[in-house]
Structure formats: C-alpha cells, structure tokens
Design goal:
This protein has 174 residues and is α/β, with parallel strands linked by helices. The protein has four helices and eight strands, in the order E-H-E-E-E-H-H-E-H-E-E-E.
C-alpha cells in the first residue's frame, strides 16, 4: 500500500497520517498489497474537504467528504469506500457475500442493491462545436453534462458541471 498525500491550505500532521494509515490498512483485506491511495486535504474558509481515491487491481474507489473537521471526514469517507468495494465485489461475484459479512470494518450491514435496467435510449448526431458552444448548450439544456464533437480536435468530448460550480472537460483516448 502506497499513500500519497496532497494538501491545499491544510497542514497534514504526522498524527493525521498515522490515523489515515491505520484506518486504510483495514481495507487491505480486499486487495492485494499493491494498491495506491491518494489522500487530498483541502481547507476553504471553515470547511475541510477530504478526498480519498484508491486504485487497486485496475479498479478505482473514491470518496469525497466535506465538514468542519478533517478527522470527522475520515470516519465518513471510509464507510463510503468500503460500501463501493463490497458493491463492486458482490456485483462481480469475486468473493462470496458471507466472506464480506465476516470482514466488514466500517459498515454495519451490506448495502442492498436493486437491479437496474436501461429505461431510455437516446441517439443523436454530433456536430462539431467549440468548447464555448458546448458550455452554452450545457447551460441551455440544464443538464449536468453535454457530449459534443470538438471542432478543434475532431474528437468526442464531454463537458460537465463540477460540484464546485466550475466545469470539467473529458477528452477520450481510444
């Protein structure tokens, strides 16, 4: 397990690192020993945001928590990640559900998941447009994302609205 710490306006103490390492090490049972963890600590005004991203065996698990105390964020973020791990592994049938019940650290019970189905399909032609035009369409439609053909690169891109109100752009590599 390799943990990479990133901070913005927040001082990461050795005590904080010890707590993170101790708690994240409880998740080792789900993976082989070679997984990467990125811990991002951000302080804005009186809010503390903790983002934990785990990259293990080609799978990504991510949790983002915002509160007034970074230490409370740890206890909120790890159950979210464990829930994602359990959901992914039981969905893929990589482990028996009974094994999870015996090893849960942060959750009281296994999350129940109802099967999903595709209820609507949309088809549309992509017309070349600039990023600014795509942003305009995103706002006009009131959606959280918009798929478009980038006029400059000729590639399919996705523009999306981030939680902080800014926009993100996804460029596909294939």
């Amino acid at each position: 397990m390799k943990i990479n710490y990133i901070s913005k306006n927040y001082k990461i103490t050795s005590h904080f690192k010890d707590i993170i390492e101790k708690k994240i090490s409880k998740l080792e049972k789900y993976f082989n020993k070679n997984f990467d963890v990125k811990v991002n600590c951000i302080e804005q005004n009186d809010d503390h945001k903790l983002e934990i991203t785990i990259n293990a065996d080609g799978m990504f698990f991510r949790s983002e928590v915002l509160s007034d105390n970074m230490f409370n964020n740890i206890d909120s973020a790890l159950p979210k990640i464990e829930r994602q791990i359990v959901k992914t592994c039981t969905k893929n049938k990589t482990r028996a559900i009974k094994d999870f019940v015996d090893t849960l650290e942060f959750l009281e019970e296994i999350p129940k998941e109802e099967p999903r189905k595709v209820v609507k399909t949309k088809r549309f032609e992509l017309e070349p447009m600039t990023i600014e035009d795509a942003e305009f369409n995103l706002d006009m439609l009131g959606h959280s994302f918009f798929i478009f053909l980038n006029a400059k690169s000729g590639e399919v891109n996705v523009i999306y609205r981030r939680a902080d109100g800014n926009l993100g752009l996804i460029e596909l590599d294939y």
